[in-house]
C-alpha cells in the first residue's frame, strides 16, 4: 500500500492537512516531513510500536536509536530535559527556531525507547511551520531522524516527488513542503555548563558560542 502524499504550504500550513498528518501519527504511522534542513522521518514520540517500525526502517536496533525530537517552541524543552543552564538557554533563545539540534540529559518524561537505556535526547525547534504545527496539534513532540537516500551521490534526498518514488511503500505519509536542504543541523552538546559544537551544519556557530 502506498503512502499518502500531501502538499502543505510551509508559510501557512492548511489546518485540515495538518490534522490529517496527526491522525496518521496517532494511528502509529511513519511520516516523512520537511524541516529547515534535510527531510526527516518520524513518528509520535509516545507510540512504541511506531518507534519499532522506525528502527526497522532505519535498519537499527532500538537501543541504537539516537533520540531527537521536534518541539513547538522553547516552552516544551523544560518538560523533556533535566536541566538547562542559563547561558545555554540564552543561546537557544537567540538560535531558535533554527537548524540546530541541542543534546541534553533526558528527563523522566521522555519515554524509554523499547529496551533502550540512552539518557540523552536531541531537541529541535526547526524554522519550518509544518513540523511545528504538527507538534502543536498533536499535543506532543514527534521523533526527528534525518532521511537518508540510497543514492551514492546525494546523501539526503531533497525532491519530495523523488522521495515518494523511493520511500512511498515504506511509510504512511509523505509531506511535500518544497525542496529540502542537503545538509544537516548544527549539533550542540549541552551536557556541560557551556555549549560545545560537535557537528557544524546549517546553523551558524556564532549564535551559540
Question: What does it look like?
Answer:
This protein is of the alpha/beta class. It has a single domain, classed as DHBP synthase. Helix content is 26%, strand content 19%. It has helices at 15-26, 48-58, 77-80, 86-95, 129-138, 160-167, and strands at residues 4-7, 31-33, 40-42, 68-70, 100-105, 120-124, 142-143, 145-146, 173-176, 186-189, 196-199. The strands form two sheets. It has a six-stranded mixed β-sheet. Strands 1-9-2-3-8 form a five-stranded mixed β-sheet, with helices on both faces. A hairpin with a 6-residue loop joins strand 2 and strand 3. Helix 1 (15-26) crosses helix 5. The longest helix has 12 residues, at 15-26. The radius of gyration is 16 Å and the shape is globular. The chain starts with a strand and ends in a 10-residue tail after the last strand. 43% of the residues are buried. This is tRNA threonylcarbamoyl adenosine modification protein (Sua5/YciO/YrdC/YwlC family). GO terms for molecular function: double-stranded RNA binding. InterPro entries: DHBP_synth_RibB-like_a/b_dom, Sua5-like_dom, SUA5_domain. Residues 15-203 form the YrdC-like domain.
